[in-house]
Amino acid sequence: MRATHVLAAVFASAAATLAVTEPARDPDLFWHLATGSWMLDHGRLLDRDVFSFTRVGTPYSAGQWLGQVALELAFRAGGWVGIELLRAALVGVATLFLSRAALRIQPHPGWSAVPIVGAILLSRLAWGDRPQLFTLALFPVFLDLLLRARRGEGARPLYALPALALLWANLHGAYILGLALLVVFVIEAQLVRHPMRRYLAITLVASALASSFNPSGLIALTWARSYAASAGQRVAEERPTDVLSPAGALYALLLLVALAAALLLGRSGLSAKVGPPLLWSGVIVPFALLGLAIQRQLPYAGDVLAPFVAAAVPAALGRTRSSSPRLPRPLALAAIGALAVLPVAVGALAAPREPDLAGYPTGALAELRARRGNLLHEYDWGGYLIRAAPDHPTFIDGRLFPFVPDVLADWSKAVAAQPGYAEVLERHDIHLVLLRPQRPLAAALGERGWPVVAQEPGRWVLLVRP
Amino acid sequence: MGLARASMRARVALAAAMGGIVAIASAFLPVGDPDAFWHLALGREVLASGPPHIEAYSWTAANTSVQSDQWLGQLVLALAYESFGWKGVAMVRALAGGATIALTAFVALGERARPLVAILATLPALLLLRGVWTERPQLLALVAFAAAVVLLRAALRGQARALWTCVPLFLVWANVHGSYALGLAMLAPVALWLRRREALLALAASAIATLLTPAGPGALTAPAGHFLRPPRYIQEWAVPELITPAGLVLAVTLAAVLVTALHGRAAAREALILVPVAFVAITAARHAAFLGIAAAPFLAAHGPGALRGIAENVGIRQLAFGPAGTSRIVTPVSVAIAVLSIAGTAIVAPTQPDLRAYPVAALPALRAGPGLLNEYDWGGFLIWYAPATKVFIDGRLSPYVPRVVDDYTTVIEAHPGWRETITRLGVRQLLVRPDRALAVRARELGWREAAAGPGFVLLDVPRLRR
Q1: Closest chain B residue to the Cα of A189, Cα to Cα
Q2: Do A332 and A392 fall into the same domain?
Q3: In chain A, which residues have their Cβ closer than 8 Å to the Cβ of B271?
């Protein structure tokens, strides 16, 4: 067995072990769990809002239903540790296939390690406990399998893709990224008349058809457009990448090193030492720009840049390509087995048993349980309140799309105390307000005589209508 | 030699024609950039008594020391205003924009590219320049940047004198605007690449020249601070949004550079300029124009070859771009266009600024002296049109970070403690937009409205007990 397989397992094990030690804290985890729980308890898809009072009964997409059910099943099986083990498993899969893709093109660990570690660090942006973890895992699977097929390993790597596309389309809405990657490989193979072009085209058609077997069918493909057009205006993680932030600087480093290496090598050097320039430009340009446009998509930019940088940099510096040494199969399998067990063992011993709730108004729950009336709260506490204070339907929460544009506009106007904020409070019959204390609305209501019934200085304040 | 001279004449004429067209297009635009007013005020002060060292326009930072890092650019604007009024300011803007594009087109045409190819390669620069088409020293600095690109590319082709020409260029640039630091970031790798003693001496001399400013080495601190920790709440310093028109042009330019690098011939020298500029361009929206300018000659030189490479990859054997020369009529026609356009800027340039975005109707009701709290982007307007009234804050920003900015944010967004902050500072009047939380709260509290109009409200602050 090639040593690169063991090396890929080393990276995967390290990333999974790191992932299992982090507590659950993602704001959206709670409403995903609540949704998964509802579906398991009722035995059907949840396609209408039941958690808010502003949009109760409104139809909305059940696109991530399988991901939500998986999260809830993991929680029911193992509590918060179950969630952390699921996260670790998916991070491990993502890292394994990212490493395989990079080591396939650059077997020398010295040249591969840095870009692989860089891509792992970028992937941490998507380690939140949500169905997006499945996209984090499946995108590099698609990339590795497609590279294998394109580099002459025949059609076998492609057989799994339609089934994976079917799963992916029900796990998380970003399955479109996998289809987009397939499209790039298909177009390139057609243009250069590669022997695999028919198999790739068939795989694309089969995957596209398979992915249409989701609750929204083909309509799900249109979400990409509306997502791209609107999400960034509202949610921080959907905003463009700041290349002066740590993650952004890492991305910029990978991108600019790729650019420099391409300039040094030129087309003929790339063809000879890295791979077909047309394929690399088709893969790198759209996904690198996607990462620049939306910081949440940075992990996938890292996935495509890492193999290229791993191969192109030593080639640009004139180093000859090495091949992977082989290890005795039993030894390699034993090593891989041990590496697979390591994160599980660490998880059993050291995974946090409780979520990190430092960012949530846990101290307000007692007061909320004792009171009735419509509650206006912070956007990113909505998911937590769905789970922790089910007697108070939310005003808004991380599901976002049921609430745009009207409810979001009302919420924004109210918390910023803009003209008409009092009318918003009246129209929605708000009796309770739970916000961060620096919000203009918190200050305004305090001055208007709304008493503070609970607070944690600097973190949250709960006011009630007098 | 005759052919070379004719070719040079044609290059200059074509470049001048492009610059002329840009200049006259710019001349049609209104003047009234929020920062233009305080630049003019400072320029007037430079004319009268030299670069100022003590803050005299605000009451919140009164008598603190200030840097005059843009004094030469401000002097140029003030001279233009003293000579021709607002028309003169508009013409400076027009001619600076035109000169930037003329230099960019000149260097693109010099890459032995077909004229049409060079013009297409210059388009990104033209489109990205639109975002910084303002009456500020920043636009004059872009002329210097384009000149630096011309000189550095000449030096890489073996013209050693070009590097020495950088010395006076950097001397002027460092006194016009802080972006000279990017010029040094391009010059250094070029000089190190050339590895000749005179190149390194020219680098050292240029670096020393940048110290010959009123602020000395301190001239770097404000621009360095802005670059490394940009005030993201200011739109032009925000991260580039690729779904906006300007962001889309940046994305297309970046994609064109990547594709050309992947498919063109090896071009190691291009990396010396492109890589640092590409990084700076993606850090903030206002820096995007740098990439357009630096990429133009690269795209002109290598774009056709990259297209041929792609064509060969897909089996198109002969991709021709037509003859390289220019018709004899091009030069006289281009000269005519350039002359008419530049002359035309004097005719079409506006004689008055566009003040629709400013609270003109509030001016009679403003009290002289300290005590006004104004919108950030009205500060420059007030400095120019209400010199007796000291401003709270304005677009210069550096005298106000962090203390005054924090107080401003607390008050204008009506955060908790906003009334105490008003009392502590001694604010007597508020000149803000009516949809501000501050305006809403002040009206609710019954504070007297001294003036109101479309887009503003002027409120008197009652005596508040400390």
Answers
A1: B314
A2: no
A3: 259-260, 263-264
